[in-house]
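Late entry, written up from scratch paper. The run itself happened at the end of the previous shift, but nothing got recorded in the book at the time, so transcribing now.
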Amino acid sequence: MSTWLITGCSTGLGRSLAEAVLDAGHDAVVTARDESTVRDLVTAHTDTALGLTLDVTEPAHVCAAVRRAEERFGQVDVLVNNAGYGYRAAVEEGEDTDVRQLFDTNLFGAIAMIRAVLPGMRARRSGTIVNISSIGARRCPPGSGYYSATKAALEAMTSSLRKEVQPLGITALAVEPGAFRTDFAGRSLTQSAQAIHDYAETAGKRRKENDTVHGTQPGDPTRAAAAIIEVVGSGHAPELLVLGSDALRSFRSVLNRQSAELDAWEATTVSTDFPS
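Output as recorded:
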């Protein structure tokens, strides 16, 4: 059995993953900005669960969470950076404070957690880091430019991290879920206060008041949790794990479009080399 530290366990995929990890007999540090929201998980697994208050944008919280995890269970074998939220706005509509908070949570919070667990993982020459991204990093839909940017940056960082830590016996991977039936499109989704009319037919269609997706998403978070546990335990986790049939379709559609554009502009691309 191993010890997992999971951020953002109050609802959604984080909670489903925490439940599945504990039910499988692993130790788990289950965290949320409000520890009371995960107290029932700890009560149901008193010997194997530790509940903590954790705001990943607060350095003191991050350090304390890793320290207490190591004090209770000896080490952190698997870190899952799941804490995060959505933000809908056309790029022009985005508000500076909101955008910076989004990056602080979705990207820099994950980086802080990674840097906190890596010393222990390096010392043991083992460990797994799972960064929860989104198919939005691939699709980049209108109205989600800032959110997609946080996840694309997280994936790029994960790819470099994987190459750095793999020789040390540590695995890093990103997970790209599609639409799952969680609170992401409900409570966990924010948006700009300003709505510019010129974007009504693009970003405007995806504002919360116009979005009818919540509660109808095809993905099952319980099955997603089982898939993540399976992949982590496989010993040969991929660099990028796509979850959901909708995400798979979107991923392939983006790849096909990009490949076609690459071919269409190949002559221009190679024309910039020095003559041979």
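The chain has one domain: 3-246.
(Scratch paper discarded after transcription.)
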